[in-house]
UniProtKB/TrEMBL annotation:
Entry protein name: NIPSNAP family protein
NIPSNAP domain location: 142-242
Signal peptide location: none
Gene3D superfamilies: 3.30.70.100
The organism's taxonomic lineage, starting at the top: Bacteria, Pseudomonadati, Bacteroidota, Sphingobacteriia, Sphingobacteriales
Pfam family, one: NIPSNAP
Length: 244
């Protein structure tokens, strides 16, 4: 019964997303992370029913900043994300395949820091989607954007803007969005995040050039002013073992 549980979750028509961000410093750590994700984490998630898991790395790492790996998963219910670590801990095959990563010592960790971001899908796109691209996986470009707002109300205003026209523009121009999500747990709230996909960097640039004229009338509307205080974009490529 819900009264006897620490957490009670309502069923939602909108999916929930998890984005894990590994911060690491060297090639050896990257090798351990990749081996863990490919041989242990993704197979275990697939066995639990998670599909279409995305693993991405930045096209370029900024000098002096952490190197990064992004791991995206989607779930129909938030409880599936909350309870995920406990379920993995019972999977002996996962524990064995990921032993180098899982049992790493304090003096030789496989990463510097690890972020976990939880999101709820927008009403305008309630579930994640596989991009419809013809280019080989190693040629594709993904773009992750985060839009921060000065207040929670302004962040909801920007989400309303997406749901009432901006997503339609992205769809019309075939931006191949993987997800749009309201961040419900993260370090830069209030913010939203979304991921789009392109055949190549040239294809990406052409899409954004075409976006501007269609977006400007909406951008100029009085009710949508000042709803983004900071925009962060990262160009990514998928790993060979990524499902997306």
């Amino acid at each position: 019964m819900a009264g006897n549980c620490l957490f009670a979750f309502e069923k939602s028509k909108q999916a929930y997303f998890q984005l894990k961000v590994y911060h690491y410093e060297n090639d050896e750590q990257e090798k351990v992370i990749d081996q863990y994700l490919e041989s242990a984490y993704l197979p275990a998630l697939h066995k639990l029913g998670f599909k279409e898991i995305g693993v991405f790395k930045p096209l370029e790492n900024a000098v002096g900043q952490d190197r990064l790996v992004y791991v995206f998963i989607s779930a129909a219910d938030l409880s599936l994300l909350v309870n995920l670590d406990q379920r993995l801990a019972k999977d002996q095959k996962y524990l064995e395949a990921g032993k180098v990563y899982i049992e790493a010592g304090y003096s030789n960790p496989p990463f510097k820091r690890l972020e976990t971001i939880w999101m709820k899908a927008f009403e305008g796109m309630p579930k994640s989607a596989l991009p419809k691209l013809s280019a080989e996986k190693n040629k594709r470009i993904y773009e992750l954007r985060s839009y921060e707002a000065a207040t929670e109300k302004l962040s909801m205003n920007k989400i309303d803007m997406f749901n009432n026209g901006e997503i339609d523009i992205f769809n019309k121009l075939n931006f191949n969005a993987v997800f749009y999500g309201q961040v419900i747990a993260g370090s830069t709230m209030p913010n939203l995040m979304y991921l789009t996909a392109f055949e190549s960097i040239e294809d990406r640039n052409t899409h954004w050039k075409d976006f501007g004229p269609l977006y400007k009338p909406m951008q100029d509307l009085t009710q949508y002013q000042n709803n983004v205080s900071k925009s962060i974009k990262v160009l990514l490529f998928p790993t060979a073992y990524s499902d997306i």
